[in-house]
Amino acid sequence: MEDTHTEQSALQRISDAAAQIFAEVGFAGARVDEIAKRANVNKATIYYHIGGKETLYAYILQQVFENLVTGVAERIAECHTPEEKLKVYIRSLSVEIQSNPHLPVLMMREFASDYQHLPETIFEEIGYLIELLTGILKEGEQQNAFIHCSPLLIHFMIIGANIFSTAGRSFLEKHNTASLANAQTVYRKGVPQDLIEDIETLVMRAVKKVT
Amino acid sequence: MEDTHTEQSALQRISDAAAQIFAEVGFAGARVDEIAKRANVNKATIYYHIGGKETLYAYILQQVFENLVTGVAERIAECHTPEEKLKVYIRSLSVEIQSNPHLPVLMMREFASDYQHLPETIFEEIGYLIELLTGILKEGEQQNAFIHCSPLLIHFMIIGANIFSTAGRSFLEKHNTASLANAQTVYRKGVPQDLIEDIETLVMRAVKKVT
Amino acid sequence: MEDTHTEQSALQRISDAAAQIFAEVGFAGARVDEIAKRANVNKATIYYHIGGKETLYAYILQQVFENLVTGVAERIAECHTPEEKLKVYIRSLSVEIQSNPHLPVLMMREFASDYQHLPETIFEEIGYLIELLTGILKEGEQQNAFIHCSPLLIHFMIIGANIFSTAGRSFLEKHNTASLANAQTVYRKGVPQDLIEDIETLVMRAVKKVT
Amino acid sequence: MEDTHTEQSALQRISDAAAQIFAEVGFAGARVDEIAKRANVNKATIYYHIGGKETLYAYILQQVFENLVTGVAERIAECHTPEEKLKVYIRSLSVEIQSNPHLPVLMMREFASDYQHLPETIFEEIGYLIELLTGILKEGEQQNAFIHCSPLLIHFMIIGANIFSTAGRSFLEKHNTASLANAQTVYRKGVPQDLIEDIETLVMRAVKKVT
DNA sequence: AATGAATGAGAATTCATTCAT
DNA sequence: TATGAATGAATTCTCATTCAT
Question: How much is the pTM?
Answer without folding.
Answer: 0.79
